[in-house]
Write a structure and sequence with these properties.
Length: 319
């Protein structure tokens, strides 16, 4: 199958390298790459001047699948949302690692993909490619998700670990920045917006919540002090930024809080760039999925697994 990439940064390059490594068993082919400032490439050619628009790029780079991997815009999900719609309008399947569109407009995108007769996949949008959506879709038929609990933000975990050693929040942010996991604006992580975006996205996809990150009842770790963290450590407790959703008679409630947890709580035990998500279900009770020290190669793998899933649906990959 042919794939066109919109965005060729850390994730795009890792995805292209993975496709190359897997090419013998999974014959995907990149037919075009479009970026904001680094130009546009078609076929096997190098980068030339940028296409004048994403529409022009998609018309020329005739692909079966479009991978939307541009920069996150947490406030609106644009322009990625428009890129995805432009792909649907041309009958292309879409895979994306970009949280914005799903956190803001999942229900419409799902319906638009269905009306266009194409697949829409987004495994890498949370937990860097660890199976969440594909697990629910493929392995949990008939199961209703009643809620979830997740420790999904790496920066806040690193910051709290540094504060536990008596250092300041700023020291923690700098440590996270050195690991390359912090958003350009660290307050996005510290104030819980990243966790809220992931919570909204999970609630939209798994529970049909139809919320945006702004609808999430959110409180971050901004007011936490090293003194408080040390005091809790003395009592074998820690603080963790937790995303939760639950189905209640009043509807679906989605919230993000800095929660005090025992050190032995599974949510507290996942540190640094590791993530844990527990799904609360009707038929399977609570089940969990974890990613230990995931990075950009796992994000790329999530895109790859989505592409394989689409190829399998189209009958071009058999296994
Ligand atoms: N990095 C991770 O570990 C990770 C994990 C999970 C999800 N994600 C998500 O994956 C996406 C990509 O992340 P990244 O780390 O690869 O970002 P990145 O390194 O900043 O790369 C972004 C790419 O998007 C291009 N781009 C930006 N705006 C564009 C536009 N309007 N039209 C066309 N191209 C545009 C950029 O073009 P230029 O090259 O010209 O600047 C660049 O190639 C983001 O949504 C991110 O949230 C990343």
């Amino acid at each position: 199958m042919r794939i066109a990439l919109i965005g060729y940064g850390n994730v795009g390059r890792a995805f292209a390298a993975l496709l190359k490594r897997q090419r013998r068993a999974y014959p995907f082919r990149i037919v075009g790459i479009h970026t904001a400032r680094h130009g546009t490439a078609y076929g096997d050619g190098g980068f030339g001047p940028p296409a004048s628009s994403v529409e022009e790029f998609l018309d020329r780079a005739k692909s079966d699948i479009v991978a939307e991997i541009t920069t996150l815009n947490p406030a609106t999900g644009e322009p990625a949302l428009s890129h995805i719609r432009a792909a649907f309008a041309r009958g292309r399947h879409v895979i994306t690692a970009n949280k914005g569109p799903i956190a803001h407009a999942y229900a419409s995108l799902r319906d638009e993909a269905s009306a266009a007769g194409v697949q829409f996949r987004f495994e890498s949008t949370v937990m860097d490619g660890v199976p969440v959506f594909n697990m629910v879709r493929n392995n949990l038929p008939g199961v209703k998700i009643l809620g979830f609990t997740g420790a999904l933000n790496s920066t806040s975990k690193v910051v709290i670990e540094v504060m536990r050693q008596g250092k300041s929040m700023q020291d923690g942010i700098e440590a996270a920045r050195r690991l390359g996991i912090t958003e350009a604006d660290a307050s996005y992580d510290i104030e819980g917006w990243d966790s809220a975006a992931k919570a909204a996205l999970l609630a939209n996809v798994l529970m049909d919540a139809r919320v945006t990150p702004q609808d999430v009842d959110r409180r971050g770790i901004g007011r936490l002090t090293p003194e408080r963290v040390r005091e809790l450590a003395g009592a074998r407790k820690t603080v963790c930024l937790v995303s939760r959703a639950r189905l209640s008679p009043a509807g679906i409630r989605v919230r993000v809080r800095a929660e005090v947890l025992d050190d032995t709580d599974p949510l507290a035990a996942v540190s640094g760039t590791s993530n844990l998500l527990l799904l609360h279900t009707d038929l399977m009770g609570t089940i969990g999925t974890a990613g230990i020290n995931c990075g950009v190669d796992q994000t790329a793998y999530g895109l790859f697994s989505d592409a394989v899933d689409i190829a399998r649906h189209a009958g071009t990959v058999q296994f």
